[in-house]
Task: structure prediction
Amino acid sequence: MVDKPLFTPGPLTTSRTVKAAMSRDLGSRDTEFIRVIRDLRNSLLQLAGVSQADGWEAVLMQGSGTFSIESVISSITPPDGKWLVIINGAYGERILKIIERHGIAAEAIRSAENELPDLVAIEAALGGEEFTHVAVVHCETTSGIMNPIAEIGALAKEHGCVYFVDSMSAFGGVQFDFAGSQLDCLVSSANKCVQGVPGFGFAICRRELLDATEDHARTISLDLTAQWRGLEGNGQFRFTPPTHTLLAFAQALRELDEEGGIAARAARYRANHDVCVAGMRAMGFTEFVPENLQGQIITSFLYPTDDFDFDEFYNRLNEKGFVIYPGKVTKANCFRIGHIGHLFPADTDALLTAIRAVAAEMNLSLSPKPA
Amino acid sequence: MVDKPLFTPGPLTTSRTVKAAMSRDLGSRDTEFIRVIRDLRNSLLQLAGVSQADGWEAVLMQGSGTFSIESVISSITPPDGKWLVIINGAYGERILKIIERHGIAAEAIRSAENELPDLVAIEAALGGEEFTHVAVVHCETTSGIMNPIAEIGALAKEHGCVYFVDSMSAFGGVQFDFAGSQLDCLVSSANKCVQGVPGFGFAICRRELLDATEDHARTISLDLTAQWRGLEGNGQFRFTPPTHTLLAFAQALRELDEEGGIAARAARYRANHDVCVAGMRAMGFTEFVPENLQGQIITSFLYPTDDFDFDEFYNRLNEKGFVIYPGKVTKANCFRIGHIGHLFPADTDALLTAIRAVAAEMNLSLSPKPA
Result:
């Protein structure tokens, strides 16, 4: 069966071979599987351009990406820690909510969902308060905006803070200078730009961060340090790993390498994005985020009219075999089209053809702009 | 590729068709997938012999089974709750450890790993202390012993406690009277006796337990009540679900039904167990748990001699294409052979043939007993 292409932020369309890698049952404590985990952890460090020799560790954690974020926050924060959370979307809000759920001190600096964080306000906050940790989302999937993680990292380091980046939807699909961004810990998940299937996430973090926080974990399941010690000790997960998902991820990492690494993948996503935005503009749709702030991961488009019926639009596209995504920004009515996964410009062309047909069926009043 | 059969407590050997069900990419918020989740939750209630109309709910949670246990404990316990944990193995100890990690009050009643819990001591404890919750493991996979969940349930109810059963390795493979056991909440996971692949677990619990504990969740990711409200509200997981694993589980539920339900599956596991124990005894191996206390899920065998080299035994079996499992009991040297998964008596026969060959290669001094 050929499934509908998923123009979403995940779960994504993956390659046939990634899915086929799941057709095996491996014992989670058997030597073959332990080798898979070891190689996969090494590959993640290589992707980030760092190594264990330089003091970095890759730790895998069961669950969705949010589980990995909560694992980091609830494991590495000392009792007297205080977070500064930089927020311009729902995923930044989620980080704050997790911190607060654990009774950890935090303050937020918010900017509009289609604007960059205010670096002056961040610097002022860091200078005046006793913050120990700074968090920001890399690509805010809420809107598709790319946040300036290197600039924020420089400020965090200047003020001696641990710097945490939620790179869920960006890692593997966006080129950036990992070490130069001065981050101490990054989280992403199996089914974003590496193009595996959902089931686990991972943290890439400085070893000293794990060593220094031995007893801070507030849960058993999400204890990042204990998970790391298990992976380093006997090479195994502490609790049953999603073996099939990990086999798919190992295959996905091979395919990322074969495609030409992050540079080639980022270029493909950029091409998907460019085709999409040009076609949507030509039809008369407008993006929510200004072009110069927009990443190539996902694009939010404003509803074309006040009475736009998104459910009908979605269902008609679905009937034609295309899955898009509802909006998530709070201050504007949007829908989203994703550019990541095993999708190519020709797939985006096919989506645009379907959107043109649906727009005609729905008699949408669009004001096409010249290309 | 044909993988080695896994005589382990999971991940298990699954059917080819269960694995093949993962060869699709479905959008997690798309209608087809929402239907899969709804049907799957209903099937779980049916398997337990309960229904939403009777006040029961099935809640799915990403991660390993331990994540689901922590989800229940950290979500349903009020700040002044106090647990009595009945322990005769490592999984009982893990429940206690989770409770303590969240700063929740608890006491344990321990018995030896090859003995049943002491019902008199449990009754005395419940009579004298202000316990609000009682927890026990159904089949202690540490040893393979089956605990008397109905008898403990009667005591818990007599003293007005919420009764929680960790039925991780038993649910779906053991016949028992769900309602008659007086339990309020049961947890199991996707890759045990239903024979799916690992990636999520589930709680089957009384709705009033969720309704009454709205604000008690100590984490965001593992918030059982919020997860339930999401599943009931829009039919979706709050955070990315392991879509492929869920598709495999839907297929596994169909195959459990086709096999003849829990009764037929329990009979197959019993047959696997009987073939295994008879063959091992004939070779001169002895079980750790007395026969009348032993379930059909997994069997612990004592090392045959003080100088038994388990690693060599394991590796030689592995080279012949069979995966068994190390022991986990604390007071005796054991190894374990599992009877669950897509395995049949003929598979166990093949394992026994391999064990006989390895015993000869290793010159094990065994004292065969007459059958």
